[in-house]
Design a protein that fits this description.
Elements (H helix, E strand, L loop, with lengths): L1 H6 L12 E7 L3 H18 L13 E9 L4 H12 L6 E10 L7 E6 L7 H15 L14 E6 L6 E10 L1 E8 L4 E9 L7
Antiparallel strand pairs: 1-2, 1-7, 3-4, 3-6, 4-5, 7-8
Helix pairs in contact: 3-4
């Protein structure tokens, strides 16, 4: 169609530049954020890095990425909220016990914390259940079927070797929908949903 418009003397408008990102995430507890930041500083010193650490308020585990958009899409936000209300999982524990790099992206490599166990239990189940809830609300195209749970510490100028760390633990009691302003390193929580504690029911 764009070629036909060009032949007729009309130029198709350029695609809109994405400005807004949406994703479901888990945020570490306040205590866990402090531990992660302290560990990140120690690891940077060990590896001789001068990379800027991710700010404590932006530390998270991404569950599902709901796309980059030019503006905040109300329909996606509404569908995500409906999917979130379907969740009825109880609280569960996250454990991070080794540091590693992902492959270089352009000139930087994400340096992250992960679990040596691969988080085969409750975290993986929760992410899959949330994906099913998203699909029921028409967001199946946004479901991340390849889930590698991690918390990014910084973006390093080179890939770093894997190394075990003192296990960091926190109990997940809620999940959030985050609105990220691209290029501005700002996160806004659009929705927050608690996990029901069956032991306190």
């Amino acid at each position: 169609m764009s070629d036909q418009l060009s032949l007729m003397g009309f130029e198709a408008p350029p695609p809109a530049v994405p400005t807004d990102r949406l994703f479901f995430a888990l945020q570490p507890s306040v205590a866990a954020c402090a531990q992660i930041t302290a560990l990140g500083k120690a690891l940077c010193e060990t590896h001789g890095l001068h990379s800027k650490l991710i700010a404590p308020e932006r530390l998270h585990i991404t569950l599902h990425h709901l796309g980059d958009h030019a503006g905040l899409p109300a329909d996606v936000v509404d569908a995500a909220g409906r999917a979130a209300t379907r969740m009825a999982s109880p609280p569960f524990e996250v454990v991070l016990d080794y540091a590693m790099s992902f492959r270089m992206r352009r000139d930087k490599a994400p340096f992250v914390l992960r679990s040596a166990e691969g988080q085969d239990g409750a975290l993986m189940d929760f992410q899959r259940e949330l994906g099913l809830a998203m699909a029921r609300e028409g967001l199946g195209h946004s479901v991340d079927v390849r889930f590698t749970p991690h918390v990014t510490l910084t973006y390093a100028p080179r890939e770093l070797p894997e190394s075990p760390v003192e296990p960091l633990r926190w109990t997940v009691r809620e999940f959030v929908l985050i609105h990220s302003l691209l290029g501005k390193t700002q996160h806004r929580v659009l929705g927050r949903w608690s996990l029901p504690d069956v032991n306190q029911a």
